[in-house]
Protein backbone atom coordinates (compact mmCIF):
# COMPACT_ATOMS: atom_id res chain seq x y z
CA UNK A 1 0.00 0.00 0.00
CA UNK A 2 2.87 2.38 0.58
CA UNK A 3 4.92 3.68 -2.27
CA UNK A 4 7.61 1.24 -3.34
CA UNK A 5 10.61 3.29 -2.36
CA UNK A 6 11.38 2.30 1.17
CA UNK A 7 13.28 4.95 3.01
CA UNK A 8 14.52 3.45 6.21
CA UNK A 9 17.39 3.54 8.64
CA UNK A 10 20.53 5.23 7.45
CA UNK A 11 19.18 6.17 4.04
CA UNK A 12 16.56 8.21 5.88
CA UNK A 13 19.23 9.81 8.03
CA UNK A 14 21.32 10.67 4.97
CA UNK A 15 18.38 12.31 3.25
CA UNK A 16 17.59 14.21 6.43
CA UNK A 17 21.16 15.43 6.80
CA UNK A 18 21.63 16.49 3.18
CA UNK A 19 18.27 18.26 3.03
CA UNK A 20 19.03 20.04 6.29
CA UNK A 21 22.32 21.35 4.92
CA UNK A 22 20.61 22.41 1.72
CA UNK A 23 18.12 24.53 3.63
CA UNK A 24 20.86 26.01 5.77
CA UNK A 25 23.01 26.93 2.79
CA UNK A 26 20.18 28.54 0.86
CA UNK A 27 19.08 30.80 3.69
CA UNK A 28 22.58 31.58 4.91
CA UNK A 29 23.39 33.77 1.91
CA UNK A 30 20.19 35.70 1.66
CA UNK A 31 20.16 39.48 2.10
CA UNK A 32 17.90 40.69 4.92
CA UNK A 33 15.56 42.39 2.45
CA UNK A 34 14.38 38.98 1.29
CA UNK A 35 13.83 37.44 4.70
CA UNK A 36 10.10 38.00 4.81
CA UNK A 37 9.41 36.72 1.27
CA UNK A 38 11.69 33.79 1.97
CA UNK A 39 9.97 32.89 5.20
CA UNK A 40 6.73 33.05 3.28
CA UNK A 41 8.26 31.06 0.42
CA UNK A 42 9.47 28.30 2.71
CA UNK A 43 6.05 28.37 4.34
CA UNK A 44 4.63 27.68 0.88
CA UNK A 45 7.02 24.79 0.30
CA UNK A 46 5.96 22.84 3.38
CA UNK A 47 2.49 23.05 1.85
CA UNK A 48 3.62 19.84 0.10
CA UNK A 49 2.03 18.23 3.15
CA UNK A 50 -1.16 18.37 1.09
CA UNK A 51 -0.07 15.38 -0.99
CA UNK A 52 0.41 13.33 2.16
CA UNK A 53 -3.03 14.36 3.34
CA UNK A 54 -4.43 13.38 -0.08
CA UNK A 55 -2.91 9.93 0.27
CA UNK A 56 -4.34 9.61 3.76
CA UNK A 57 -7.82 10.69 2.67
CA UNK A 58 -7.83 8.45 -0.41
CA UNK A 59 -6.93 5.51 1.81
CA UNK A 60 -9.44 6.37 4.52
CA UNK A 61 -11.85 3.58 5.34
CA UNK A 62 -13.80 4.88 8.33
CA UNK A 63 -15.87 8.06 8.72
CA UNK A 64 -13.43 9.27 11.38
CA UNK A 65 -10.49 8.90 9.00
CA UNK A 66 -12.48 10.58 6.27
CA UNK A 67 -13.28 13.59 8.46
CA UNK A 68 -9.70 13.98 9.63
CA UNK A 69 -8.38 13.41 6.13
CA UNK A 70 -10.77 15.96 4.72
CA UNK A 71 -9.53 18.61 7.12
CA UNK A 72 -5.96 17.55 6.45
CA UNK A 73 -6.35 18.13 2.72
CA UNK A 74 -8.24 21.38 3.28
CA UNK A 75 -5.60 22.76 5.64
CA UNK A 76 -2.71 21.58 3.49
CA UNK A 77 -4.25 23.10 0.37
CA UNK A 78 -4.72 26.37 2.23
CA UNK A 79 -1.10 26.31 3.30
CA UNK A 80 0.14 25.74 -0.24
CA UNK A 81 -2.20 28.15 -2.04
CA UNK A 82 -2.01 30.92 0.55
CA UNK A 83 1.75 30.63 0.85
CA UNK A 84 2.10 30.88 -2.91
CA UNK A 85 -0.17 33.89 -3.40
CA UNK A 86 1.34 35.88 -0.56
CA UNK A 87 4.94 35.16 -1.60
CA UNK A 88 4.23 35.93 -5.23
CA UNK A 89 2.59 39.23 -4.30
CA UNK A 90 5.54 40.27 -2.19
CA UNK A 91 8.16 39.34 -4.75
CA UNK A 92 6.27 40.98 -7.57
CA UNK A 93 6.97 44.33 -5.94
CA UNK A 94 10.72 44.09 -5.91
CA UNK A 95 12.05 46.35 -8.60
CA UNK A 96 15.41 47.92 -9.15
CA UNK A 97 15.90 51.66 -9.78
CA UNK A 98 13.08 53.01 -11.99
CA UNK A 99 12.59 51.81 -15.53
CA UNK A 100 15.78 53.29 -16.80
CA UNK A 101 17.70 50.57 -15.03
CA UNK A 102 15.68 48.02 -16.95
CA UNK A 103 16.29 49.67 -20.29
CA UNK A 104 19.87 50.81 -20.16
CA UNK A 105 21.40 48.10 -18.09
CA UNK A 106 19.43 45.09 -19.11
CA UNK A 107 22.75 43.30 -19.32
CA UNK A 108 22.91 43.53 -15.53
CA UNK A 109 20.28 40.87 -15.27
CA UNK A 110 22.69 38.10 -14.49
CA UNK B 1 -0.09 0.44 -14.75
CA UNK B 2 2.88 1.39 -12.73
CA UNK B 3 1.53 4.48 -11.08
CA UNK B 4 4.13 4.30 -8.34
CA UNK B 5 6.91 4.97 -10.82
CA UNK B 6 5.11 8.02 -12.21
CA UNK B 7 4.46 9.33 -8.71
CA UNK B 8 8.05 8.78 -7.60
CA UNK B 9 9.46 10.47 -10.70
CA UNK B 10 7.10 13.42 -10.30
CA UNK B 11 8.08 13.84 -6.66
CA UNK B 12 11.71 13.81 -7.62
CA UNK B 13 11.12 16.62 -10.09
CA UNK B 14 8.99 18.49 -7.55
CA UNK B 15 11.71 18.29 -4.89
CA UNK B 16 14.21 19.56 -7.44
CA UNK B 17 11.94 22.46 -8.38
CA UNK B 18 11.39 23.36 -4.72
CA UNK B 19 15.09 23.55 -3.96
CA UNK B 20 15.90 25.37 -7.19
CA UNK B 21 12.99 27.76 -6.59
CA UNK B 22 14.12 28.53 -3.05
CA UNK B 23 17.60 29.12 -4.36
CA UNK B 24 16.29 31.64 -6.90
CA UNK B 25 14.24 33.33 -4.18
CA UNK B 26 17.50 34.07 -2.41
CA UNK B 27 18.38 36.93 -4.76
CA UNK B 28 16.22 39.98 -5.48
CA UNK B 29 16.90 39.71 -9.22
CA UNK B 30 15.63 36.16 -9.60
CA UNK B 31 13.24 35.97 -6.63
CA UNK B 32 10.08 36.38 -8.66
CA UNK B 33 10.88 33.46 -10.93
CA UNK B 34 11.84 31.40 -7.88
CA UNK B 35 8.33 31.26 -6.50
CA UNK B 36 6.98 30.43 -9.96
CA UNK B 37 9.38 27.50 -10.27
CA UNK B 38 8.42 26.23 -6.82
CA UNK B 39 4.77 26.77 -7.67
CA UNK B 40 5.02 24.46 -10.69
CA UNK B 41 6.64 21.88 -8.46
CA UNK B 42 3.59 22.01 -6.21
CA UNK B 43 1.13 21.77 -9.11
CA UNK B 44 2.96 18.73 -10.42
CA UNK B 45 3.08 17.02 -7.02
CA UNK B 46 -0.62 17.61 -6.32
CA UNK B 47 -1.60 16.48 -9.82
CA UNK B 48 0.18 13.13 -9.56
CA UNK B 49 -1.09 12.62 -6.00
CA UNK B 50 -4.49 11.89 -7.57
CA UNK B 51 -2.91 8.71 -8.93
CA UNK B 52 -2.94 7.40 -5.35
CA UNK B 53 -6.63 6.84 -5.99
CA UNK B 54 -5.79 4.03 -8.45
CA UNK B 55 -3.93 2.06 -5.86
CA UNK B 56 -5.59 2.33 -2.46
CA UNK B 57 -5.50 -0.29 0.26
CA UNK B 58 -8.17 -2.97 0.36
CA UNK B 59 -10.21 -1.56 3.21
CA UNK B 60 -10.53 1.78 1.44
CA UNK B 61 -11.44 0.21 -1.92
CA UNK B 62 -15.24 0.63 -1.56
CA UNK B 63 -14.85 4.26 -0.48
CA UNK B 64 -12.51 5.39 -3.20
CA UNK B 65 -15.02 7.49 -5.17
CA UNK B 66 -16.36 9.14 -2.04
CA UNK B 67 -12.82 9.85 -0.93
CA UNK B 68 -11.87 11.22 -4.32
CA UNK B 69 -14.85 13.57 -4.19
CA UNK B 70 -13.86 14.63 -0.70
CA UNK B 71 -10.32 15.37 -1.91
CA UNK B 72 -11.63 17.56 -4.70
CA UNK B 73 -13.98 19.44 -2.36
CA UNK B 74 -11.30 19.94 0.29
CA UNK B 75 -8.79 21.12 -2.30
CA UNK B 76 -11.38 23.47 -3.76
CA UNK B 77 -12.30 25.03 -0.43
CA UNK B 78 -8.70 25.22 0.80
CA UNK B 79 -7.25 26.69 -2.37
CA UNK B 80 -10.22 28.96 -3.01
CA UNK B 81 -10.28 30.47 0.45
CA UNK B 82 -6.50 30.85 0.71
CA UNK B 83 -6.18 32.30 -2.77
CA UNK B 84 -8.88 34.85 -2.08
CA UNK B 85 -7.60 35.84 1.37
CA UNK B 86 -4.01 35.97 0.14
CA UNK B 87 -4.90 38.30 -2.73
CA UNK B 88 -6.95 40.54 -0.50
CA UNK B 89 -4.71 40.97 2.52
CA UNK B 90 -2.92 44.30 2.97
CA UNK B 91 0.86 44.23 2.88
CA UNK B 92 1.04 45.44 6.47
CA UNK B 93 -0.99 42.39 7.56
CA UNK B 94 1.26 39.94 5.74
CA UNK B 95 2.96 38.49 8.86
CA UNK B 96 -0.30 37.27 10.39
CA UNK B 97 -1.36 35.72 7.08
CA UNK B 98 1.91 33.81 6.93
CA UNK B 99 1.23 32.68 10.51
CA UNK B 100 -2.24 31.52 9.55
CA UNK B 101 -1.14 29.56 6.47
CA UNK B 102 1.70 28.08 8.47
CA UNK B 103 -0.71 26.93 11.16
CA UNK B 104 -2.79 25.22 8.49
CA UNK B 105 0.26 23.27 7.32
CA UNK B 106 0.90 22.20 10.90
CA UNK B 107 -2.71 21.11 11.16
CA UNK B 108 -2.44 19.04 8.00
CA UNK B 109 0.66 17.28 9.36
CA UNK B 110 -1.18 16.60 12.64
CA UNK B 111 -4.12 15.20 10.66
CA UNK B 112 -1.83 12.74 8.86
CA UNK B 113 -0.39 11.72 12.22
CA UNK B 114 -3.88 11.24 13.66
CA UNK B 115 -4.93 8.96 10.80
CA UNK B 116 -1.75 6.90 11.13
CA UNK B 117 -2.26 6.53 14.88
CA UNK B 118 -5.95 5.65 14.49
CA UNK B 119 -5.28 3.18 11.67
CA UNK B 120 -3.85 0.43 13.86
CA UNK B 121 -0.94 -0.08 11.48
CA UNK B 122 1.66 0.49 14.16
CA UNK B 123 2.60 -3.18 14.30
CA UNK B 124 3.32 -3.51 10.60
CA UNK B 125 4.94 -0.07 10.30
CA UNK B 126 7.27 -0.58 13.24
CA UNK B 127 8.45 1.44 16.18
CA UNK B 128 10.44 4.13 14.32
CA UNK B 129 7.54 5.09 12.08
CA UNK B 130 5.13 5.17 15.02
CA UNK B 131 7.42 7.36 17.10
CA UNK B 132 7.91 9.74 14.15
CA UNK B 133 4.15 9.88 13.65
CA UNK B 134 3.70 10.80 17.31
CA UNK B 135 6.44 13.44 17.27
CA UNK B 136 5.22 14.91 13.98
CA UNK B 137 1.72 15.04 15.40
CA UNK B 138 2.91 16.80 18.54
CA UNK B 139 4.97 19.37 16.63
CA UNK B 140 2.28 19.88 14.01
CA UNK B 141 -0.43 20.43 16.61
CA UNK B 142 1.77 22.89 18.55
CA UNK B 143 2.49 24.75 15.30
CA UNK B 144 -1.23 24.83 14.52
CA UNK B 145 -2.53 26.26 17.79
CA UNK B 146 0.59 28.39 18.35
CA UNK B 147 0.35 29.95 14.90
CA UNK B 148 -3.34 30.67 15.44
CA UNK B 149 -2.52 32.55 18.65
CA UNK B 150 0.29 34.41 16.85
CA UNK B 151 -2.15 35.32 14.10
CA UNK B 152 -4.77 36.52 16.59
CA UNK B 153 -2.20 38.63 18.42
CA UNK B 154 -0.80 40.28 15.31
CA UNK B 155 -4.28 40.82 13.96
CA UNK B 156 -5.23 42.61 17.17
CA UNK B 157 -7.80 39.98 18.14
CA UNK B 158 -5.95 39.17 21.34
CA UNK B 159 -4.43 42.19 23.00
CA UNK B 160 -3.56 41.07 26.45
CA UNK B 161 -0.55 38.98 27.17
CA UNK B 162 -1.56 36.47 29.80
CA UNK B 163 1.27 35.20 31.93
CA UNK B 164 0.23 32.64 34.47
CA UNK B 165 2.25 32.19 37.64
CA UNK B 166 4.62 29.29 37.08
CA UNK B 167 4.00 29.43 33.35
CA UNK B 168 7.19 27.60 32.52
CA UNK B 169 6.45 24.80 34.97
CA UNK B 170 2.98 24.41 33.45
CA UNK B 171 4.44 24.32 29.94
CA UNK B 172 7.06 21.78 30.94
CA UNK B 173 4.39 19.64 32.62
CA UNK B 174 2.20 19.78 29.49
CA UNK B 175 5.15 18.87 27.31
CA UNK B 176 6.01 15.81 29.38
CA UNK B 177 2.37 14.85 29.63
CA UNK B 178 2.15 14.96 25.82
CA UNK B 179 5.31 12.85 25.54
CA UNK B 180 4.00 10.36 28.10
CA UNK B 181 0.69 10.05 26.27
CA UNK B 182 2.60 9.65 23.02
CA UNK B 183 4.68 6.89 24.56
CA UNK B 184 1.53 5.16 25.80
CA UNK B 185 0.02 5.36 22.30
CA UNK B 186 3.20 3.92 20.80
CA UNK B 187 3.38 1.01 23.25
CA UNK B 188 -0.30 0.23 22.85
CA UNK B 189 0.00 0.51 19.07
CA UNK B 190 2.93 -1.90 18.92
CA UNK B 191 0.86 -4.35 20.94
CA UNK B 192 -1.84 -4.01 18.29
CA UNK B 193 -4.25 -1.84 20.25
CA UNK B 194 -5.66 1.55 19.34
CA UNK B 195 -7.22 3.77 21.99
CA UNK B 196 -9.14 6.53 20.26
CA UNK B 197 -9.52 8.35 23.56
CA UNK B 198 -5.81 8.28 24.22
CA UNK B 199 -4.99 9.65 20.76
CA UNK B 200 -7.62 12.36 21.18
CA UNK B 201 -6.22 13.30 24.60
CA UNK B 202 -2.73 13.42 23.09
CA UNK B 203 -3.79 15.94 20.44
CA UNK B 204 -5.75 18.05 22.91
CA UNK B 205 -2.71 18.29 25.18
CA UNK B 206 -0.51 19.20 22.20
CA UNK B 207 -2.91 21.91 21.08
CA UNK B 208 -3.13 23.35 24.59
CA UNK B 209 0.65 23.33 24.77
CA UNK B 210 0.84 25.45 21.61
CA UNK B 211 -1.56 27.96 23.13
CA UNK B 212 0.28 28.08 26.44
CA UNK B 213 3.66 28.51 24.74
CA UNK B 214 2.53 31.38 22.57
CA UNK B 215 0.16 33.26 24.83
CA UNK B 216 2.75 34.79 27.18
CA UNK B 217 4.87 36.10 24.30
CA UNK B 218 4.44 39.78 23.49
CA UNK B 219 3.57 41.19 20.08
CA UNK B 220 7.09 42.48 19.44
CA UNK B 221 8.49 38.98 19.53
CA UNK B 222 5.86 37.46 17.25
CA UNK B 223 8.04 37.49 14.11
CA UNK B 224 10.56 35.22 15.80
CA UNK B 225 7.74 33.00 16.99
CA UNK B 226 6.18 32.73 13.53
CA UNK B 227 9.53 31.89 12.03
CA UNK B 228 10.04 29.24 14.70
CA UNK B 229 6.64 27.68 14.06
CA UNK B 230 7.41 27.75 10.35
CA UNK B 231 10.45 25.61 11.08
CA UNK B 232 8.31 23.41 13.36
CA UNK B 233 5.79 22.78 10.61
CA UNK B 234 8.61 21.91 8.23
CA UNK B 235 9.90 19.35 10.70
CA UNK B 236 6.43 17.91 11.31
CA UNK B 237 5.94 17.56 7.55
CA UNK B 238 9.29 15.80 7.23
CA UNK B 239 8.39 13.36 10.04
CA UNK B 240 5.03 12.56 8.51
CA UNK B 241 6.87 12.17 5.21
CA UNK B 242 8.85 9.33 6.79
CA UNK B 243 5.62 7.81 8.04
CA UNK B 244 4.09 7.88 4.56
CA UNK B 245 7.41 7.06 2.84
CA UNK B 246 6.97 10.21 0.79
CA UNK B 247 10.36 11.61 -0.28
CA UNK B 248 8.98 14.96 -1.48
CA UNK B 249 7.56 15.64 1.97
CA UNK B 250 10.76 14.52 3.68
CA UNK B 251 13.00 16.73 1.58
CA UNK B 252 10.76 19.80 1.43
CA UNK B 253 9.95 19.55 5.12
CA UNK B 254 13.56 19.15 6.19
CA UNK B 255 14.78 21.99 3.97
CA UNK B 256 12.16 24.28 5.49
CA UNK B 257 12.90 22.99 8.96
CA UNK B 258 16.57 23.87 8.78
CA UNK B 259 16.12 27.07 6.77
CA UNK B 260 13.44 28.20 9.20
CA UNK B 261 15.62 27.42 12.20
CA UNK B 262 18.46 29.48 10.76
CA UNK B 263 16.10 32.32 9.90
CA UNK B 264 14.76 32.25 13.46
CA UNK B 265 18.27 32.47 14.88
CA UNK B 266 19.14 35.35 12.55
CA UNK B 267 16.05 37.26 13.60
CA UNK B 268 16.68 36.67 17.27
CA UNK B 269 20.25 37.83 16.81
CA UNK B 270 19.12 41.01 15.09
CA UNK B 271 16.93 41.72 18.10
CA UNK B 272 19.74 40.78 20.46
CA UNK B 273 17.53 38.26 22.17
CA UNK B 274 18.49 34.62 22.52
CA UNK B 275 15.73 32.42 21.16
CA UNK B 276 15.32 30.86 24.59
CA UNK B 277 14.50 34.34 25.94
CA UNK B 278 11.79 34.79 23.39
CA UNK B 279 10.27 31.40 24.02
CA UNK B 280 10.39 31.70 27.77
CA UNK B 281 9.06 35.23 27.36
CA UNK B 282 11.37 37.26 29.47
CA UNK B 283 10.76 40.51 27.66
CA UNK B 284 9.39 43.29 29.78
CA UNK B 285 10.38 41.56 32.96
CA UNK B 286 13.69 43.36 33.13
CA UNK B 287 13.64 46.73 34.86
CA UNK B 288 13.27 49.52 32.43
CA UNK B 289 16.43 51.57 32.29
CA UNK B 290 15.09 54.31 34.55
CA UNK B 291 13.75 57.20 32.51
CA UNK B 292 14.71 59.92 34.95
CA UNK B 293 18.37 59.88 34.00
CA UNK B 294 17.97 61.40 30.57
CA UNK B 295 19.14 64.98 30.30
CA UNK B 296 17.87 67.68 28.00
CA UNK B 297 14.40 68.08 26.60
CA UNK B 298 12.54 67.24 23.44
CA UNK B 299 12.36 70.00 20.86
CA UNK B 300 9.39 70.18 18.58
CA UNK B 301 9.70 71.26 14.96
CA UNK B 302 7.27 71.88 12.10
CA UNK B 303 7.08 69.44 9.23
CA UNK B 304 7.99 72.23 6.82
CA UNK B 305 11.24 72.96 8.73
CA UNK B 306 12.29 69.36 8.35
CA UNK B 307 11.31 69.31 4.68
CA UNK B 308 13.32 72.43 3.88
CA UNK B 309 16.34 71.16 5.79
CA UNK B 310 16.28 68.01 3.65
CA UNK B 311 15.71 69.96 0.45
CA UNK B 312 18.96 71.86 0.94
CA UNK B 313 20.95 68.89 2.23
CA UNK B 314 23.41 66.80 0.24
CA UNK B 315 22.90 63.51 1.96
CA UNK B 316 19.70 62.36 3.59
CA UNK B 317 19.09 59.01 5.23
CA UNK B 318 15.55 57.90 5.95
CA UNK B 319 14.84 55.40 8.71
CA UNK B 320 11.35 53.98 8.24
CA UNK B 321 9.62 52.00 10.97
CA UNK B 322 6.38 50.15 11.41
CA UNK B 323 4.63 53.40 12.41
CA UNK B 324 5.11 54.58 8.83
CA UNK B 325 3.43 51.51 7.44
CA UNK B 326 0.56 51.68 9.91
CA UNK B 327 -0.11 55.27 8.80
CA UNK B 328 0.05 54.01 5.17
CA UNK B 329 2.46 56.86 4.45
CA UNK B 330 5.02 54.98 2.37
CA UNK B 331 3.54 56.21 -0.95
CA UNK B 332 3.62 59.83 0.20
CA UNK B 333 7.12 59.30 1.50
CA UNK B 334 8.34 58.06 -1.86
CA UNK B 335 6.66 60.99 -3.59
CA UNK B 336 8.62 63.29 -1.28
CA UNK B 337 11.84 61.35 -1.91
CA UNK B 338 11.38 61.77 -5.65
CA UNK B 339 11.09 65.55 -5.17
CA UNK B 340 14.34 65.51 -3.21
CA UNK B 341 16.06 63.38 -5.85
CA UNK B 342 15.01 65.82 -8.55
CA UNK B 343 16.83 68.48 -6.55
CA UNK B 344 19.94 66.30 -6.56
CA UNK B 345 19.78 65.19 -2.95
CA UNK B 346 21.34 61.80 -2.27
CA UNK B 347 18.52 59.97 -0.50
CA UNK B 348 18.90 56.52 0.96
CA UNK B 349 16.80 54.28 3.14
CA UNK B 350 18.28 52.54 6.17
CA UNK B 351 16.44 49.44 7.30
CA UNK B 352 16.92 47.86 10.66
CA UNK B 353 16.73 44.05 10.53
CA UNK B 354 13.61 44.00 12.66
CA UNK B 355 11.87 47.05 11.19
CA UNK B 356 8.26 46.20 10.53
CA UNK B 357 6.94 42.99 11.96
CA UNK B 358 9.32 40.53 10.33
CA UNK B 359 12.86 40.90 8.97
CA UNK B 360 12.50 42.28 5.50
CA UNK B 361 8.88 43.30 6.07
CA UNK B 362 9.79 46.98 5.73
CA UNK B 363 11.49 46.28 2.40
CA UNK B 364 8.29 44.72 1.18
CA UNK B 365 6.27 47.71 2.35
CA UNK B 366 8.65 50.14 0.62
CA UNK B 367 8.65 48.00 -2.50
CA UNK B 368 4.87 48.24 -2.49
CA UNK B 369 5.22 52.02 -2.75
CA UNK B 370 7.58 51.57 -5.69
CA UNK B 371 10.85 52.41 -3.91
CA UNK B 372 13.62 50.69 -5.90
CA UNK B 373 15.57 48.23 -3.80
CA UNK B 374 18.97 49.67 -4.72
CA UNK B 375 18.45 52.78 -2.58
CA UNK B 376 17.46 50.61 0.39
CA UNK B 377 20.30 49.54 2.65
CA UNK B 378 20.73 47.10 5.50
CA UNK B 379 22.09 48.18 8.84
CA UNK B 380 25.62 46.88 8.25
CA UNK B 381 25.88 48.59 4.89
CA UNK B 382 24.79 52.05 5.91
CA UNK B 383 25.57 52.53 9.58
CA UNK B 384 29.00 54.05 8.86
CA UNK B 385 27.42 56.65 6.60
CA UNK B 386 25.25 58.32 9.21
CA UNK B 387 28.24 60.38 10.34
CA UNK B 388 28.42 61.94 6.86
CA UNK B 389 24.68 62.49 6.52
CA UNK B 390 23.37 66.04 6.76
CA UNK B 391 19.93 64.96 7.79
CA UNK B 392 18.61 61.69 9.13
CA UNK B 393 14.87 61.36 9.48
CA UNK B 394 13.16 58.69 11.55
CA UNK B 395 9.58 57.85 10.61
CA UNK B 396 7.65 55.78 13.10
CA UNK B 397 10.60 53.89 14.50
CA UNK B 398 11.81 54.02 18.06
CA UNK B 399 13.78 51.27 19.77
CA UNK B 400 15.93 50.57 16.72
CA UNK B 401 17.45 54.06 16.89
CA UNK B 402 17.87 54.27 20.66
CA UNK B 403 21.52 54.96 21.52
CA UNK B 404 20.90 53.41 24.94
CA UNK B 405 21.46 50.07 23.20
CA UNK B 406 25.10 51.09 22.78
CA UNK B 407 25.73 52.80 26.08
CA UNK B 408 23.40 51.88 28.88
CA UNK B 409 24.09 48.47 30.33
CA UNK B 410 20.98 48.45 32.51
CA UNK B 411 18.68 48.93 29.53
CA UNK B 412 16.73 45.88 28.33
CA UNK B 413 17.73 46.70 24.77
CA UNK B 414 21.45 47.00 25.61
CA UNK B 415 23.58 45.30 22.98
CA UNK B 416 20.95 45.32 20.25
CA UNK B 417 22.43 46.66 17.01
CA UNK B 418 20.92 50.06 16.27
CA UNK B 419 20.99 52.55 13.43
CA UNK B 420 23.34 55.42 14.29
CA UNK B 421 20.87 58.20 13.68
CA UNK B 422 22.35 60.17 16.58
CA UNK B 423 25.59 60.54 14.59
CA UNK B 424 23.97 62.45 11.76
CA UNK B 425 24.41 66.21 11.73
CA UNK B 426 20.71 66.82 12.27
CA UNK B 427 18.03 64.33 13.07
CA UNK B 428 14.28 64.63 12.75
CA UNK B 429 11.91 62.19 14.34
CA UNK B 430 8.36 61.97 13.07
CA UNK B 431 6.19 60.51 15.78
CA UNK B 432 2.54 60.48 16.72
CA UNK B 433 3.06 61.35 20.36
CA UNK B 434 5.56 61.23 23.15
CA UNK B 435 5.06 57.53 23.93
CA UNK B 436 7.72 54.92 24.36
CA UNK B 437 8.64 52.12 21.96
CA UNK B 438 7.63 48.48 22.10
CA UNK B 439 10.26 47.74 24.70
CA UNK B 440 8.89 50.47 26.95
CA UNK B 441 12.26 52.24 27.14
CA UNK B 442 12.75 56.00 26.90
CA UNK B 443 14.73 57.04 23.84
CA UNK B 444 17.74 59.26 24.47
CA UNK B 445 17.90 60.23 20.82
CA UNK B 446 14.74 62.26 21.21
CA UNK B 447 16.39 64.41 23.86
CA UNK B 448 19.65 65.00 21.98
CA UNK B 449 20.64 68.54 21.01
CA UNK B 450 20.68 67.87 17.29
CA UNK B 451 17.31 66.09 17.28
CA UNK B 452 13.98 67.75 16.60
CA UNK B 453 10.62 66.09 16.98
CA UNK B 454 7.89 66.46 14.39
CA UNK B 455 4.64 65.38 16.01
CA UNK B 456 1.77 64.12 13.97
CA UNK B 457 0.39 61.31 11.89
CA UNK B 458 3.04 60.22 9.36
CA UNK B 459 0.60 60.50 6.47
CA UNK B 460 -0.24 64.15 7.29
CA UNK B 461 3.35 65.06 8.05
CA UNK B 462 4.47 63.72 4.67
CA UNK B 463 1.73 65.69 2.93
CA UNK B 464 2.90 68.85 4.66
CA UNK B 465 6.49 68.14 3.68
CA UNK B 466 5.57 67.65 0.04
CA UNK B 467 3.67 70.93 0.09
CA UNK B 468 6.56 72.76 1.74
CA UNK B 469 9.03 71.53 -0.86
CA UNK B 470 6.69 72.24 -3.75
CA UNK B 471 6.18 75.80 -2.57
CA UNK B 472 9.94 76.30 -2.86
CA UNK B 473 9.59 75.68 -6.57
Automatic annotation (TrEMBL), chain A:
InterPro entries with a match to the protein in the record: NADP_transhyd_a_C (IPR024605)
Superkingdom of this protein's organism: Bacteria
Catalytically driven reaction(s): NAD(+) + NADPH + H(+)(in) = NADH + NADP(+) + H(+)(out)
EC numbers: 7.1.1.1
Domain NAD(P) transhydrogenase alpha subunit C-terminal: from-to ranges: 13-95
Pfam families, per database record: PNTB_4TM
Subcellular location(s) per record: Cell inner membrane
Recorded topology in the membrane: Multi-pass membrane protein
Assigned keywords, A-Z: Cell inner membrane, Cell membrane, Membrane, NAD, NADP, Translocase, Transmembrane, Transmembrane helix
Ranges annotated as spanning the membrane: 6-24, 44-61, 67-86
Top EC category: translocase
Protein role: The transhydrogenation between NADH and NADP is coupled to respiration and ATP hydrolysis and functions as a proton pump across the membrane.
Record-linked PANTHER family: NAD(P) TRANSHYDROGENASE, PROTON-TRANSLOCATING NAD(P)(+) TRANSHYDROGENASE
Name of the protein described by the UniProt record: proton-translocating NAD(P)(+) transhydrogenase
Species, as recorded: Halopseudomonas salina
Gene: pntAB
TrEMBL record, chain B:
Superkingdom of this protein's organism: Bacteria
Record key words, sorted: Cell inner membrane, Cell membrane, Membrane, NAD, NADP, Translocase, Transmembrane, Transmembrane helix
Listed SUPFAM superfamilies: DHS-like NAD/FAD-binding domain
Database matches in InterPro entries: DHS-like_NAD/FAD-binding_dom, NADH_DH_b, PNTB-like
Residue stretches making up the NADP transhydrogenase beta-like domain: 8-467
UniProt keyword annotation of Cell inner membrane present: yes
Membrane topology field: Multi-pass membrane protein
Localization: Cell inner membrane
Residues passing through the membrane, by range: 6-22, 34-52, 64-86, 98-115, 127-151, 172-190, 196-214, 226-244, 250-268
Pfam families: PNTB (PF02233)
Catalysed transformations (reactions): NAD(+) + NADPH + H(+)(in) = NADH + NADP(+) + H(+)(out)
Entry coiled-coil feature ranges: none
Its EC number(s): 7.1.1.1
Functional note: The transhydrogenation between NADH and NADP is coupled to respiration and ATP hydrolysis and functions as a proton pump across the membrane.
Family: Belongs to the PNT beta subunit family.
Quaternary assembly: Heterodimer of an alpha and a beta chain.
Name of the featured protein: NAD(P) transhydrogenase subunit beta
Organism of this sequence: Halopseudomonas salina
Taxonomy of the source species: Bacteria, Pseudomonadati, Pseudomonadota, Gammaproteobacteria, Pseudomonadales
Amino acid sequence: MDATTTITGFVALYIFMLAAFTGYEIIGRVPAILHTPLMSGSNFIHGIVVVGAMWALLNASTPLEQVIGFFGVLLGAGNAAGGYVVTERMLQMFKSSDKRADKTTSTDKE
Amino acid sequence: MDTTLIIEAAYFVAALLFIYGLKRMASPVTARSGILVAGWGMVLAVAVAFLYGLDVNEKAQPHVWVNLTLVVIALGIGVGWAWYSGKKVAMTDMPQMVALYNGMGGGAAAAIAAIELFSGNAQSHGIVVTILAVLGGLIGAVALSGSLIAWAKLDGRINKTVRLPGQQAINAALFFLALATGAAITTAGLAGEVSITLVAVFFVISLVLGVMLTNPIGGADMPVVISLYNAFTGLAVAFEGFVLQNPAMIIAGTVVGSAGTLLTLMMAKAMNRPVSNVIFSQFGETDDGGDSEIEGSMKAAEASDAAIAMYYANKVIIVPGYGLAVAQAQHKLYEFVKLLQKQGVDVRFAIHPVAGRMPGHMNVLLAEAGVPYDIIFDLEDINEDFAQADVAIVLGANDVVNPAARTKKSSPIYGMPILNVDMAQTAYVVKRGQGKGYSGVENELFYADNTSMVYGDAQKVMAQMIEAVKSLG
